[in-house]
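Reopening this ticket.

The earlier resolution said the output was attached, but the attachment link was broken on my side. Pasting everything inline this time so it's all in one place.
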Amino acid sequence: MRVSLILLKAIPPTAAAVLLAFAASPRLVDAYRLRLLATGDDPGDVPTIRIPNRDLHGDLLEKLFAHKSASQRGQTHVRRTFLYYNRPADEHQECIDTDHPHYAELANATLRTLSVPREEIVAMARRCSHQVLEDLWPVGTTSRVLRLADLTVPIASRLMFELVFRAAPTQEQIALVGRCATDTAKNFKGLRNSGNISAKLELLDLLRAKVTEDGGCPGIFGPDSTLDTNSRAKHLQGMFFSKGVNQLSECVCHTVLAASRHPHVVERIRGGNARYLDHVLTETLRLYPQHATIQHLVVDDVALSPTVTIPRGTQLLVDISRHQRMGHTAPDAFIPERWEQPSRAEGGFVVFGKGQRKCPAERFSRTAAAVIVQELLSSFAVHAPIRHTRALEGGGLCCLVPLGSAATPGIGFKKKLVWTRDRAERVAFSAAQLIYFSLAARAVQRLPHGTDSNNVPHRTCSRRRTERSTRRVE
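Inline output:
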């Protein structure tokens, strides 16, 4: 709290008021970012609809979300922002349109990689969890203040490396993958300068070398693939080592944090109730989807009802959090038991997408996340007196206490430390988001339409460094 007061005295009153408003309301941050996205530099003939709204919600929204004609990305400001944050890994299937000449080949490569028996997924996830905890948790430690992401990112990085290359990574490779995934996540959250992609370029070089060493990874891309080494490496980096690591890591963090506040939930998870744990994951993803907004472009008129037609060329900005709260009793409450009702099997749940854009990794991610969550909650008592937000800006700051510890000296002080750090960091995160979201929006606006997002000039980089980075990406 003292840190917050010092910061507030050092900045003008108006700026202080904005920072406090951001710190107090995570939804305000999402609204600010959505406004930047919706008021970009798109031509006037690209209308934007934010949904759900009065006319388009519930089943009608999900029907549109799954429609083939509403599954493209286009060249809108939102899509170019997405590419900018992901560069240089902007050639995986989530970044390109479904009619792209490489889309089918990349989608098949993803499916081949994920076609692993459930028993093998469970074994890999458990092995990776044990190895990372053994490496990062010193023997004899009775309690420790850390960010859950400091554990879940290395676990997810190791798991994805084993999934893709069928070999255990080195500590240096795990650290590089984790650093790059964290950089991308912070880009989307507005917590870092998106202009610096040096670590991601280093990872791309590593993946190029691995693809070449494995003869083009025919087990993933097939023996007759027409993709060059660069495109294969970019797909692996974007799909598995960026998107895959981030989504798995944050899903585990959110689930552990949410469950830790409900002792009866933790007890049922520790008891090995797999079906209930799946409900816990679903409820967690309903409340804390990784992306606040998903963008689609309508390429043909879509008639949803006799009175509702979405015209061709309309950009859709889907507020996932709002949609998944509609139609539920106590929509903001964490109640895994709500999914035990058969009628709730799919209602209002679109985290993994619909139609052509449905996430191919749903089975893998659910299985792996369940194993990692159970390993963490069966190993530690989690004390997290923090504000739990969808963006998870603080990485899940908490105090972990190994189960079975004879004594936990200083646990009260450490819980207060977590509480204090969380509230002090809110102001710093809010300031970063105000600055970096605006800088990224300007950088994307400087990018000509229809060009590669990697060629954006950045004031934070020297001219020589920018040119060198561009050559490496190409």
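Reporter confirms the inline version is readable. The longest strand covers residues 397-402. Residues 17 and 248 are 35 Å apart (CA to CA).
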